[in-house]
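Write out this protein's structure.
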Amino acid sequence: MAKDDANKAGSAAVIEKGLGVLERVWDAHWALRLACAILFLDMAMMLRVGRGLRQWTVEDKALLSDVGWVAPLIVAFSFTVAIVIPLVLIVLRQVSALVLEWFLPFLTKSSELRYRRPLGYVPAGEFYNFALCGKDDFLFRMYEAHERKKKTEQQARERAGELTAATLLAVLTNWLLAQWTPGSIGLIGAIADALADWASVVAVAALLYSGSVLKWAWFSDASPNLIYYPSLDQSLRDRKERTEGFLDNKLSDLESAVGGHGYGSGGDQLVRQRHFDAITVLAQNVKPGFGHVARSALRDHDHFGHQAGQVICEKPA
């Protein structure tokens, strides 16, 4: 009875470990890592015995127990993953950016000019200044959670691009090595033979998918760093409208004053242009954030911030 219980417990542990491995392999990042490791082993086999894993024989089992071969293999793989591939990817990323900029500029064109802040959202910097001014622990925790999430998403995006590019390099290297090694069949060649006429279709689809992943990971604008806080958003928009209205009035007054002097052509127009340049510089120096927001006004939904007794929170310089 005790032996049966032990066997059941052992079987349950094996199943649990198997499910854990399957869950990791199912993850895209782990799947790409596993693919790179298997392709590296396949290339090491071709360099060692002149045949790949597809041509595995019973005699090849001795290689796995050969410490003199396994130890350098592990060192070479670790060095390649930690040093060689990151350096190659840095160069590849820079070269790809230059090539796309020259031949396909629309793929790297920034979309910042088309950006409009959604209603209810505020820039993370404005939110941080607002929390710092009010010394609100809840808002600080909210800001820190947002920054952690943003950093995690950015790291996942970078990792997806790196692993995709590394897998493409491993696939290309495996295929080329098999072509240069007489009598060997690499895993990529074996897969191509198994797919037969569909090999080219699958290759094109894989390249298009990998290209879209690299485009998203390397050459796309990062998402705006915004936090959802409607009351602060409304206050910022109201303050921006009031400031823009103030600048428009000043510009109109200046235009009327300049027009009233009857400036004509030539040198007089230069004087008029200097007036407009001055008001343009003034408008450009007004930042869109307008960080001086009344905290108490936001809580009371009074977005003008002119009630008696309120303290205006100035944005730090």
